[in-house]
C-alpha cells in the first residue's frame, strides 16, 4: 500500500494523516491496520520508531466515529507518563476534526483534574497504577469499553505491571478487541498475552533488532574511567542531542551533575522527579536548550526526539531487548545515528549476546590521547581542621596520569576481551 487512502478510513482521518505529516504507511502500519480495522486482536511487533502508535490509533478512531459519543470506549495502557502523553498527543492530532475526546490518567498530577478530563472522554490513555486508583474511586466507567491497547507490551508485562494489568482487565468487558504493540516480545511474555487476547494474529515486520539506520560500537573501558571517557567524547563529538543511559536513578542524577559541572548543558530523567520536573527536562532536551539527557531505561520510555544523534550506554543494558530499546532512540525518522556502549570486562557476556542479536561483531573503538590506564581517584576521608587536600600520615595522592600529546599517543590499554 503506497498511501493511507488505500485503507477504509473516514475522510476526516485521511485529512488528519496528511496534516500531521504521514505520507507512506510504514511496514507495521501496512500489515496491522487492515487487521485492526477488521476488529481482529493483533500482536504487533516492530522496532521502536516505526509508527506503531498510528497503527492502533487510527483503527480506534475509525471505530469510535460510529458512536455513541461521550463514554469511554477505548483504553490504552502505557508503562510511563511520557509515553502516555505522547500517545495522547498523537490521538489529539489525528482526531482533531472528529470531535472525539481523549484523556490521560497517570501519576504526578492531581486526581481531580483527571476526573474532570475523563467525563465524556471517548479514549483514555493511562498508566496502570493511577488508572486503578481512579477505578477504585468510581471515576472510570469501563462498562462500554470496546478496545484495549497495551503499548510497549513487553515492558508492561515483563517489568512488574502484570498484576495491575490483570486487575484492570478483570473490570473490562470480555467482548472487546485487544491490541498489543511492542518492539520485542520474548517467548515467556508472549505466553502471558494469551490470557489477554482472543485468536490474536501476530504481525512481525522485522526481527527484534536495532534499526538499520544506527551504527554500533563498543568502547572498552574500566568502570572507574567511564565518566572521564564520556566527558572526552562529548568534548570531541560534533553531535545533535545525546541520550546517555545509566542503570540506576542515583547514577543518572550524579552523572548529570558531573556533566553539568563540566560545562555541558545536561538534564536528568529518573523516577524520583515530579511530573513537572520530568516535563521540563524533556522539554529542554527537545528544544535543544539541554544537549544531553541522562536517563534510566524506564524513565526514557516515551521519549521521541528525532534529533538524537547519539545514544551512549554508560552502563551496559541488562538484556539484549533493553539494548534494542535504547539504541532505537536514535536513527529515527530516516535519520542516521550512533549507539556507543561503554563496556568493562565484566560486561563481556552481555556484549557477546548483543553481537549475536545484531548478527555481527561490534566495532571496538578507543579514543586517541585518553589515558585508559589511569588509577582510580583516591577516596578522601571526611576532613575537619586539616588544610585543604591534606591527609594525616599519608602522601599526596598520585596524579591520575600525564597529559598526552598527539593523536594515538600514550597508553591505550585494551580490556582483555576487547
Keywords:
single chain; 418 residues; alpha/beta; Rossmann fold; 2 domains; 7-stranded parallel β-sheet; 14 helices; 34% helix; globular; disordered C terminus
Detailed description of the structure:
With 418 residues, the protein is α/β, with parallel strands linked by helices. The protein folds into two domains: 4-57 and 64-204, Rossmann fold, CATH 3.40.50.300; 214-364, 3-Layer(aba) Sandwich (Rossmann fold). The protein is built from 14 helices and 14 strands. The protein has helices at 11-20, 27-37, 52-64, 81-95, 111-118, 128-136, 153-158, 162-169, 187-193, 226-236, 249-261, 275-287, 320-327, 348-358; strands at 42-45, 74-77, 102-105, 123-126, 147-151, 177-182, 201-204, 214-220, 241-245, 266-269, 292-295, 308-313, 337-343, 363-364. The strands form two sheets. The chain has a seven-stranded parallel sheet with strand order 3-4-2-5-6-1-7. Helix 3 (52-64) packs across helix 4 and helix 6 runs parallel beside helix 8. The chain is globular and about 70 Å long. It starts with 10 loop residues before the first helix and ends in a 54-residue tail after the last strand. The relative contact order is 0.12.
Quick rundown:
The protein is of the alpha/beta class.
Q: What structural class should be given to the helix and strand makeup?
A: alpha/beta
**Total beta strands:** 14
By CATH reckoning, the class of the largest domain would read Alpha Beta
First-to-last CA distance = 45 Å
Strand order of the largest sheet: 3-4-2-5-6-1-7
- State the major sheet: 7 strands, parallel
What is the fourth-level CATH superfamily of the largest domain? P-loop containing nucleotide triphosphate hydrolases
Amino acid at each position: 500500500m503506497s498511501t493511507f487512502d488505500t485503507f477504509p478510513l473516514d475522510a476526516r482521518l485521511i485529512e488528519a494523516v496528511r496534516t500531521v505529516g504521514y505520507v507512506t504507511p510504514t511496514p507495521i502500519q501496512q500489515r496491522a491496520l487492515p487487521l485492526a480495522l477488521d476488529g481482529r486482536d493483533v500482536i504487533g511487533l516492530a522496532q521502536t520508531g516505526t509508527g506503531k502508535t498510528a497503527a492502533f490509533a487510527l483503527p480506534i478512531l475509525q471505530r469510535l466515529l460510529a458512536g455513541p459519543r461521550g463514554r469511554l470506549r477505548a483504553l490504552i495502557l502505557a508503562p510511563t507518563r511520557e509515553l502516555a502523553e505522547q500517545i495522547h498527543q498523537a490521538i489529539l492530532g489525528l482526531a482533531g476534526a472528529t470531535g472525539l475526546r481523549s484523556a490521560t490518567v497517570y501519576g504526578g498530577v492531581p486526581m481531580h483534574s483527571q476526573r474532570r478530563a475523563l467525563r465524556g472522554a471517548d479514549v483514555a490513555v493511562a498508566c496502570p497504577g493511577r488508572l486503578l486508583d481512579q477505578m477504585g474511586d468510581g471515576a472510570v466507567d469501563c462498562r462500554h469499553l470496546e478496545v484495549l491497547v497495551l503499548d510497549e507490551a513487553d515492558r508492561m508485562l515483563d517489568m512488574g505491571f502484570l498484576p495491575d494489568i490483570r486487575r484492570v482487565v478483570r473490570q473490562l468487558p470480555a467482548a472487546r478487541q485487544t491490541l498489543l504493540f511492542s518492539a520485542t516480545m520474548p517467548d515467556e511474555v508472549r505466553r502471558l498475552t494469551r490470557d489477554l487476547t482472543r485468536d490474536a494474529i501476530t504481525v512481525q515486520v522485522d526481527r527484534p533488532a536495532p534499526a538499520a539506520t544506527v551504527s554500533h560500537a563498543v568502547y572498552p573501558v574500566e568502570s572507574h574511567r567511564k565518566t572521564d571517557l564520556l566527558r572526552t567524547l562529548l568534548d570531541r563529538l560534533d553531535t545533535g542531542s545525546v541520550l546517555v543511559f545509566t542503570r540506576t536513578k542515583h547514577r543518572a542524577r550524579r552523572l548529570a551533575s558531573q556533566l553539568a559541572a563540566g560545562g555541558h548543558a545536561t538534564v536528568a530523567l529518573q523516577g524520583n522527579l515530579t511530573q513537572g520536573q520530568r516535563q521540563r527536562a524533556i522539554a529542554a532536551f527537545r528544544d535543544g536548550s539541554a544537549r544531553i539527557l541522562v536517563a534510566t531505561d524506564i524513565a526514557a520510555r516515551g521519549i521521541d526526539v528525532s534529533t538524537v544523534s547519539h545514544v551512549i550506554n554508560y552502563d551496559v543494558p541488562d538484556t539484549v531487548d533493553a539494548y534494542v530499546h535504547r539504541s532505537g532512540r536514535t536513527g529515527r525518522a530516516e535519520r542516521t545515528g550512533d549507539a556507543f556502549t561503554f563496556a568493562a570486562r565484566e560486561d563481556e557476556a552481555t556484549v557477546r549476546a548483543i553481537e549475536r542479536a545484531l548478527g555481527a561483531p561490534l566495532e571496538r573503538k578507543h579514543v586517541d590521547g585518553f589515558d585508559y590506564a589511569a588509577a582510580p581517584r583516591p577516596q578522601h576521608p571526611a576532613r575537619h581542621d586539616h588544610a585543604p587536600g591534606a591527609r594525616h600520615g599519608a602522601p599526596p595522592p598520585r596524579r591520575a596520569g600525564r597529559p598526552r600529546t598527539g593523536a594515538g599517543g600514550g597508553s591505550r590499554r585494551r580490556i582483555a576481551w576487547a
